[in-house]
């Protein structure tokens, strides 16, 4: 049985974002090769790449999960501007939410040629970093995932482990499961430690994480 590790960020609510002047993390507040616009996809719609393989019911469930404030009486533009304002003021929830929007393609970015980007992990990484530095557990998980996959930042497993650990210590079950996988398999050159892997899997499993439960079963079946 293969060990299961989350690969996308759909489990996170879009309610916040953050800031860090870390040399290894892009400083998107000053602008890079990309130009960000204060636009989002139409209200109530998912980006096309998130709809693939999902039934109408599953799409509705996903929308409720990642777009939790559709009935606040605000237009998409007003909602985005408020989120951006709160994020720039230092609200870590807003920073994490803004990072999620850029990663999922709900906030529109353009590349240097002016083409709309389906996803903007560079800008997402900048906002996740800002929130993560303030101790936001979901942002720490998100940033760890970007480092693990090399999305928006240079791939670096040891940095991913650092952020996963900070998130996991606050009870984030996906971070706990990811740490278990990394320590068990030596993902990205990480030091293998089966006992530590089992410890993290058990913590996640106790919170009901199905992936961690399956990973424990796979270890026991060996």
UniProtKB/TrEMBL annotation:
Give the superkingdom in one word.
Bacteria
Cite a single Pfam family from the UniProt record: Sel1
Q: Which SUPFAM superfamilies match?
A: HCP-like (SSF81901)
Signal peptide segment? none
Which organism is the protein's source? Nitrosomonas mobilis
For this entry, the protein name equals Sel1 domain protein repeat-containing protein
* PANTHER family (alphabetical): ERAD-ASSOCIATED E3 UBIQUITIN-PROTEIN LIGASE COMPONENT HRD3 (PTHR11102:SF160), SEL-1-LIKE PROTEIN (PTHR11102)
Q: Which SMART domains match?
A: SEL1
